[in-house]
Amino acid sequence: MDEAHEAPPGEASVRVPLHRIAHARSGDKGNRQNISLIAYDPALWPTLLAEVTEARVHELFRHRGASVVHRYVLPKLHAMNFVIDDALEGGVNAALALDTHGKTGSFRLLAMEIDVPERLLPSGG
Questions:
Q1: pLDDT (average), residues 96-106
Q2: 91 near 28, Cβ under 8 Å?
Q3: pTM
Q4: How far is CA 113 from the centre of its chain?
């Protein structure tokens, strides 16, 4: 994790799935999958920046043939957008997959586990 966003010494962090602290939406443009990730709480934004990197997202979608992942940050919205090349088996007209539009990609991303300072976690569930 980037030192600027690590929990202070002695502060506990907890490993949680992204869906605990953010929501997402996905879609497609040809053979590119597009996933936006938005923090529920602006205080979580630095943690998302440090933990949800292009490399980690690429690894998450490598099994789908993803070749490149670009992350675009939208700091005023506490959001980021990932563009994942070659992740949709050729796109809507070419793929034999059930989810040719890549709509379930957001759920895959939201299942990724990250380390979050315990004090920033929302209470309950």
A1: 56
A2: yes
A3: 0.78
A4: 10
